[in-house]
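Q: Predict the bound structure with adenosine-5'-diphosphate.
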Amino acid sequence: MKRIGVLTSGGDAPGMNAAIRAVVRTAAYHGVEIFGIYRGYQGLLDNQLKKLGPRDVSGIINRGGTILRTARCQAFYEPEGRAKAAETLKANQIEGLVVIGGDGSYRGALKLQEEHGIQCIGVPGTIDNDIGGTDFTIGYDTALNVAVEAIDRIRDTADSHERLFFVEVMGRHSGYLAMMSGIAGGAEEILVPEIPTDIQRLVDHLNQGAAKGKTSAIVIVAEGDDAGHAIDVAKKVAEVSQYKEARVVVIGHLQRGGTPSAFDRILASRLGVRAVEALLEGETGKMVGLNANHVLLRPLSEAWECRTQFDPEYMRVAHVLAT
Ligand code: ADP
Ligand code: F6P
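A: Predicted complex:
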């Protein structure tokens, strides 16, 4: 293999740049040419490629976002879109592709491989940490720390004013990030999409806490909770709780930006090196992942077939500690 491509796709995640750097430098180390593809799969449709060398990725290990930009590409869901993407790769003699993204991006990569014989390796990049085949995804640790820092700040003012706060954390389809943010931030309640929300139980629990001497409370609401967004839950709960009113904070996209943590940089570096070396070994249709601190190759389909299941034990821990 003489030439490979790298792209970032789906929601951006802190540490994607560290992964791009690792991929580009590993290719250079092994004497392989590498092309950066801009705006995910859209860049393949629009022929937006640029040859990258090791110096093009200097000074990005500490930067959030992705220098290659990212996008969600509707046309890639269709066979015609993927055929056009494959044409671009073949016209540029790119035989292998490193796809940095989540399970949606992997589904696209697998189809590109099956339909057009493009060698593909996935690198897990998403703040949600909700895909199979890896213990951690790049970006999750940074996003978690941003959320926890925000909760700590909210705790100060909640305590001072003896208030109830609802804090919305990202994760449309997964409550993992919200759950961990709540445990680390010492939240009184954590609402996640995986567990149906019982508003009356929530009110009772907040009131019991007040009866036991709590003078403020923080409720974490995952973006995708069945009871609605934090603002909706606050409306249903505040007046009938002892607090009578509530404040709402949506952390939102703050979690996706900013300097990646050391953990995410190291994870991205290890996975990026392995991804390129896997392509050079002739591997395809696989993702690189971290398993018990070992970098392993797993089938791309594991990302969705073995999707990380929500562990109710975390909820139990949170409940015990909210006593
Ligand atoms: P993530 O990779 O973070 O899960 P998305 O689900 O938004 O993000 O997927 C990113 C992109 O991957 C989509 O915009 C689309 O171009 C491509 N993609 C996702 N799912 C599929 C699919 N089933 N078939 C083909 N392409 C897909
Ligand atoms: O998948 C990553 C993620 O940040 C989710 O946590 C969130 O629900 C979603 O993307 C938000 O997506 P958008 O980029 O459309 O705001």
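A: The longest strand covers residues 3-8.
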